[in-house]
UniProtKB/TrEMBL annotation:
It comes from the Eukaryota. It is found in: Membrane. It is a multi-pass membrane protein. Solcar repeats lie at residues 38-125, 141-229, 244-345. Its main location: membrane. The keyword Signal does not apply. This is Mitochondrial adenine nucleotide transporter ADNT1.
Amino acid sequence: MASEDVKTSESAVSTIVNLAEEAKLAREGVKSPSYAILSICKSLVAGGVAGGVSRTAVAPLERLKILLQVQNPHSTKYNGTIQGLKYIWRTEGFRGLFKGNGTNCARIVPNSAVKFFSYEEASKGILYLYQQQTGNEDAQLTPLLRLGAGACAGIIAMSATYPMDMVRGRLTVQTEGSPYQYRGMFHALSTVLRQEGPRALYKGWLPSVIGVIPYVGLNFAVYESLKDWLIKSRPFGLVEDSELSVTTRLACGAAAGTVGQTVAYPLDVIRRRMQMVGWKDAASVVTGDGRNRASLEYTGMIDAFRKTVRHEGVGALYKGLVPNSVKVVPSIAIAFVTYEVVKDVLGVEIRISD
């Protein structure tokens, strides 16, 4: 009995000590491990929801953009945003407008979750190093440092989910008249692996990495810098109690999306074209009516740039820019606002701008 009393007393003391330690950590502003894990999970959920909602909202424009990027200039079916959307509706129906969106969401949910989480963690690490280097504990991230954090987040997220992006591009391009049909994401992945090998899943990865640095980096840098400027300068009465309205945050996200996508767009075109290389039915798909069925061959990113410009002109590097501009502005804006709203609902205290 005595030993049991001692064990009970030790257990009670241990519990009290643990509670005291957690209380001390809370007073000092340090979160307990369990709180940190919960915060990470909530942040990942918020990022995933933001990605899924934003991409589904603009799925028809996303599909049209890819079709414009890869179609053969000598046999065109899609001549513009309105005409292209009407053509898809007429030939493939409502479902045709959202073809590839399931795979896109399967890719973008983990991609967005990893991207937003990576950005927050990279921002914290870079800010800590910057404060240590300057000796100023109150120092804040500069636009250039935010650009670096955003670039790191983009590369990590893109690399982790690139195989899904590759097959999503092919699923999006094929039409009802394509000679061979991928039946879905897993069928496409297995078919590419079997016919072209594992390296094929990373075709176009290099221009994607190069493009993601200015695209994602500028998205985060412009968005955060605009928010900080609006909060500090309070122009036109847009800020109340140090908080921006949803409309103002949407505008910040829209501006960020416009800058990022314009700078990186040529690399996105080259990436899509490289993803078609090795697909034996690609020529039939991208040439529309099947004329000029010569196989699509690029030896690398530079070769793809050179052949595209030589055969189609510099303007070919911006094919699909109009629907992409219409798409990317609301997409990025919705993603940022959804992310912050979901975080608020889940009770996550750490903001992107922290």
